[in-house]
């Protein structure tokens, strides 16, 4: 599937938020991992925007703030904004957030991983990489 540079969702990922989320998703599911293709091989932003729009308005409003926190939090730790870091430094930064003693950092990572995994594995093409088949049918 071809990646597009358009805005995902009705206003949720406008401005730099879409670029930040795409970079986060590409870091969470990198190319050449356990399955070969990564988030960078698919345009996940439109579906991510739809999922974010389904959340409570208070969460929707906080999502761009959380993405800006990731973007500029890397600046203080690595000297560059998140989207300009090398893949290795992006991984280290997200891991540090996930293992942080601060609850809000861990919750930001949990939400970002949730959005990433839901959008990546919801298609049959990508879910089959793990051996999973959608549906509730029994095989004989």
Folded structure, characterized:
The structure is a single chain. The chain has 140 residues and is mainly α. It has one domain. 56% of the residues lie in helices and 0% in strands. The chain contains six helices and no strands. It has helices spanning 17-28, 45-53, 57-78, 87-98, 103-121, 124-127. The longest helix is centred in the middle third of the chain and has 22 residues, at 57-78. The radius of gyration is 16 Å and the shape is globular. The protein starts with 16 loop residues before the first helix and ends in a 13-residue tail after the last helix. 29% of the residues are buried. The model is unreliable at 1-10 (pLDDT under 50).
Key descriptive features of the protein:
mainly alpha; 140 residues; 56% helix
